[in-house]
Write a structure and sequence with these properties.
- The longest helix has 21 residues.
- This protein is globular.
- A seven-stranded parallel sheet has the order 3-2-1-5-7-8-12, with helices on both faces.
- The relative contact order is 0.12.
- It has eight helices and 14 strands.
- Helix 4 packs across helix 6 and helix 6 packs across helix 8.
- It is of the alpha/beta class and about 280 residues long.
- The chain starts with a strand and ends with a helix.
């Protein structure tokens, strides 16, 4: 029996992780932690071990085989709340991991971080990236002090089985244009992003037992390449490329440690894979 805890289970990474273990593991118990859990939704109603985060102290003496740490307040929230509120919410999230780890035995933990870590000393550095660096430091310190095997994966852009199409990313923007207008307009077509197939990250975490910090991505794509692949998913799509000056490639990774763990076929964000996500 594997005990699996997902901290941040109401988000799309959490939902994708639930689906992964439902599809690939029989003998498991899944514990869900989150701030915005809708306990009546289909994804949660079959799980008795579901806890709103303010009840985290109720979980004690649990042996956790795999701990997934997805929880963080995204930088979009900075447009809706004050910086003081943003700092407080993220500090609470970080402290909750400490509370849980003090009360339970975690064997192995994964923190999903961000390519924003590398914004330090650039024009992009902001409160989000600063707090992400703090989260990484606090997480690794706790894990090392408590002998928890850990990984920190820095994500730049990704796709997953439970992709949130409400997010304002290039990926979602291209799909929305295709659905509404039967065309895709691409500004900055030569700007690149490092894309991760999220299911590969779960597989990597489960199968590797060393303490690791790495960039998690499967394929580098320019916006021209991404739009072209998405266009092939639809019928009779017009692609329009505006050669505006490209943005800085601050969402691009050159670290190939993670990528080398997978075959060429798995690395590709293929047309068939995109069809499964989009439709």
């Amino acid at each position: 029996m594997k005990n699996i805890v997902i901290y941040g289970s109401s988000g799309w990474l959490g939902k994708s992780t639930i689906e992964y273990f439902e599809n690939n593991y029989r003998n498991k118990a899944i514990y869900l932690l989150g701030r915005n859990l809708n306990l009546d939704s289909d994804i949660y109603k079959n799980y008795k071990n579901t806890y709103h985060i303010h009840k985290i102290n109720q979980i004690k003496n649990l042996e956790v085989d795999l701990f997934f740490y997805f929880s963080f307040v995204t930088q979009e929230k900075l447009l809706k709340i004050t910086e003081e509120e943003y700092i407080k919410l993220n500090e609470e999230i970080i402290n909750n991991f400490k509370i849980f780890s003090d009360n339970n035995l975690i064997k192995k933990a994964l923190l999903t971080s961000s390519g924003a870590i590398y914004w330090e000393n650039t024009s992009k550095d902001n409160l989000y990236s600063k707090l992400k660096r703090m989260q990484e430091n606090e997480f690794s310190n706790i894990c090392e002090n408590q002998n928890i095997q850990y990984q920190i994966s820095r994500i730049f852009a990704l796709t997953s089985s439970k992709f949130n199409f409400e997010k304002n990313y290039a990926f979602t923007n291209f799909i929305e244009q295709a659905n509404k207008n039967n065309k895709i307009i691409v500004n900055n077509p030569e700007t690149s992003r490092s894309y991760l197939k999220f299911e590969n990250l779960i597989k990597f975490f489960v199968n590797n037992n060393s303490n690791l910090i790495y960039d998690a991505w499967n394929e580098n794509l320019t916006m021209r390449e991404l739009a072209t692949r998405i266009g092939l998913v639809f019928n009779d799509i017009e692609l329009i490329f505006n050669n505006i000056q490209t943005e800085e490639d601050l969402y691009l990774s050159t670290d190939t440690y993670f990528t080398k763990q997978f075959s060429d076929k798995e690395n590709l964000i293929s047309i068939d894979y995109l069809k499964k996500i989009i439709f």
